[in-house]
């Protein structure tokens, strides 16, 4: 039961962070929010890691092996730096509810990556889960929202928002596979905060290196220093709830639960986002959008429980 509660807490934290990052992205841009929250999260995770890990402060840096750094670092680059940039762009255009619903595409990307990197196989229930999830996503895409449902045409076209959200979900799924590969690496067992810290640190270094090399550093940081206190406040809150508490709890959850069970609970994000969207933004949830979200979640549930369903059905 502890693992289930931790996974549910993870999903709730991510729900609040989505709204915070949506507000921040609409004020100073997705790129600025992504850069700022990575720095905040890395600093906070460094402090928490030093306080929580046994031994001197240097243990945080020296206890992980090179394989830990490689796989978790790649996970941070793809899942956090690149993936969340696409996600924030999608949030700004589509709003939190629809963007979060499209994250149900992440398990499909994780399944493909798991097959290629971890040797995971796909059976008939798994194929059924993918088809149902894609059908649910298509229902959501075809349900073009109005401005009272969170969609903002001022930040980009509806199609651009969909593509950004799906690209973000794909990066998250691949990032999850790489994180699992890193956690399963032989060597000392990492503290869950330490695993989150490695992902965040490498992701932050990577995105800032790219930004500096492309001479966009001041373009990205200038909005943060523009004096928009609301944007900074929303981004700080989102950084604490999402990449600090949420990501750390997700690492803890998979130490108690099977990855399939944890992923099922994480995929309930569209459900936890909906009541917040209705309460905070006064969004109108149509029957069709609700049906699409439920179909997508059902497909994800079938997908992650495919082995159990195959045993029961005798496939």
How many β-strand stretches?
A: 0
Look at the structure and give the mean pLDDT: 83
Q: Return the structural class.
A: mainly alpha
Give the biggest beta sheet: none
Task: Please give the domain count.
Answer: 1
What does it look like?
By secondary structure, this protein is an all-alpha fold. The protein has one domain. Helices cover 79% and strands 0% of the residues. The chain contains 15 helices and no strands. Helix 2 packs antiparallel against helix 9. It is globular and about 50 Å long. The mean pLDDT is 83.
Task: List key phrases describing it.
single chain, 315 residues, mainly alpha, globular
Write the layout of secondary structure elements.
Elements: H1 2-28, H2 30-52, H3 59-62, H4 66-94, H5 96-102, H6 106-117, H7 124-142, H8 158-183, H9 192-213, H10 217-221, H11 229-256, H12 259-266, H13 269-281, H14 287-304, H15 306-313
Helix pairs in contact: 1-2, 1-4, 1-11, 1-12, 1-13, 2-4, 2-9, 2-11, 4-5, 4-8, 4-9, 5-13, 6-8, 7-14, 7-15, 9-11, 12-14
What's the gist of this structure?
This protein is mainly α and 315 residues long. It is built from 15 helices and no strands.
């Amino acid at each position: 039961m502890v693992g289930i509660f931790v996974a549910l807490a993870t999903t709730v934290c991510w729900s609040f962070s989505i709204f915070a990052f949506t507000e921040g992205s609409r004020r100073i841009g997705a790129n600025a929010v992504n850069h700022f929250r990575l720095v905040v999260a890395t600093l906070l995770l460094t402090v928490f890691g030093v306080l929580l890990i046994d031994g001197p402060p240097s243990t945080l840096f020296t206890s992980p092996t090179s394989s830990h750094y490689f796989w978790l670092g790649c996970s941070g680059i793809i899942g956090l730096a690149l993936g969340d940039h696409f996600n924030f762009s999608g949030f700004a255009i589509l709003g939190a509810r629809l963007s979060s619903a499209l994250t149900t595409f992440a398990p499909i990307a994780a399944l493909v990556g798991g097959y290629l990197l971890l040797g995971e196989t796909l059976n008939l229930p798994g194929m059924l889960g993918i088809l149902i999830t894609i059908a649910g996503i298509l229902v959501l895409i075809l349900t073009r929202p109005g401005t009272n449902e969170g969609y903002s045409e001022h930040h980009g076209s509806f199609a651009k928002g969909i593509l950004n959200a799906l690209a973000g979900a794909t990066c998250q799924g691949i990032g999850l596979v790489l994180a699992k590969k890193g956690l399963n690496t032989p060597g000392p067992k990492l503290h869950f905060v330490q695993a989150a810290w490695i992902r965040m640190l490498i992701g932050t270094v990577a995105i800032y290196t790219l930004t500096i090399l492309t001479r966009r550093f001041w373009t990205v940081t200038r909005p943060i220093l523009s004096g928009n206190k609301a944007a900074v406040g929303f981004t700080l809150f989102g950084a604490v709830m999402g990449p600090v508490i949420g990501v750390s709890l997700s690492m803890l959850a998979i130490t108690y639960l099977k990855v399939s069970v944890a992923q099922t609970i994480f995929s309930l994000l569209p459900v936890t986002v909906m009541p917040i969207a209705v309460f905070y933004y006064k969004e109108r949830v149509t029957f069709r959008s609700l049906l699409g979200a439920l179909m997508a979640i059902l497909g994800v549930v079938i997908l992650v429980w495919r082995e159990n369903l195959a045993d029961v059905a005798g496939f």
